[in-house]
Prior knowledge:
InterPro entries: Condensation_dom (IPR001242). Helices cover 35% and strands 24% of the residues.
Amino acid sequence: xxxxxxxxxxxxxxxxxxxxxxAPESVARAAEAPVHPAPPSHQQEEYLRLADRHAGADxxxxxxxxxxxxxxxxxxxxxxxxxxxxxxxxxHDTFRTWFAIGPGGTIRRHLVPEExxxxxxxxxxxxxxxxxIREHVQKTTPGPFxxxxxxxxxxxxxxxxxxxxxxxxxxTDGLGQYLSCSDLAYLYAREAWNVGDMLEPAASYLxxxxxxxxxxxxxxxxxxxxxxxxxxxxxxDGELPCFPLDLGKRTDGYNRSAxxxxxxxxxxxxxxxxxxxxxxxxxxxxGIFAAAALAEAELTGSDYYFGMTPLSTRTxxxxxxxxxxxxxxxxxxxxxxxxxxxxxxxxxxxxxxNGIRLAPTSFHRVLELLxxxxxIHIQPGWATPMISYVDARDFAGHEFFDLVHGGIxxxxxxxxxxxxxxxxxxxxxxxxxxFPDTPVAHESVQRYIHTMRRMFEAVAAQSG
Length: 464
């Protein structure tokens, strides 16, 4: 069972808390790390500028990702875990970098030498309050402008142990969070029980960032991908898409995050839903956007769907073994001329595939290319709704997901739009939503979720 939600909803059982954090000498030496020529990715740069712009907020504005798993083992070997954590940090070079904003607003990466990295255990004794554990994790994990913006921990319950990784979003994405769990498990098995090394070589995230920038530096306003992006935005009155219902957002301060998760389909119904999609030349993901478009049409009367979806930009086996923020947003846009799902899913699949072709053309770079007198009305710090789809059955070890109790949680950061994650697990497909915590948004999101689930269930019922 994998729980998804906000850190406020994580309820670890009481136990002895041991954490692994950077040794003081390691922190001091890391601060002296030299500038490295690899730039941040476009996604990282935008994220860091937003974090800097809102540094005065009275809460953590940047994203904190918490991954947890409870293992049926009460005798954790702390020395083996210490070696495993340090080996993990050296395996993925994103964890050896930190960023600073210099004169003129330039963001520079610093690379920490391998010999400097040393995380050490700290025993905090028995904690019997889940809230105290949550607060400890959030307060002791630094923000994105500090090198050591990631911490590890274990809560020993006696006959089981909850292990966690808390890492700033700067260094991870959804696949990266899964890889972190599997890597640490393999490394611990190697260190504790002398199990052979089963990990594939991991690519350098710094090399990826360099290659991304080299590619996007060659883009111009005449590049096909840039022209397509601008065509879509101009067709939407120069704006990015927004959630179709009112969110009641406050304008005099920050809107914090709220969360809802539901079971969208049982696996049996998911298979039936997929059969209908394939009978119409589409895949499960095409069905998701067809259902979203039809739900939006029902709720608002819209005859055109314009959504966004995150895609992994990993292209090689080594990158698929690498932890980092390998994600870009791409558009999914199509007319809702048909009222039948069968017709809509064919069009939605084609629109999704067209969106994939824009993955190398970062929208952040597109905005950089615009002249001062542009007719595109997108401000710095822009937000847009998204629907993310992950088929977790593709992950190695997915057969154990229903046997362990794990979780992926986010901090209650600022929220301006509605973010939807649809995750297909071995036993069910879930829908999770992060949205602004306002009374109006709660009501709107409830209507949206109810309509979406009804769409999915109706399609599944067609195949029987």
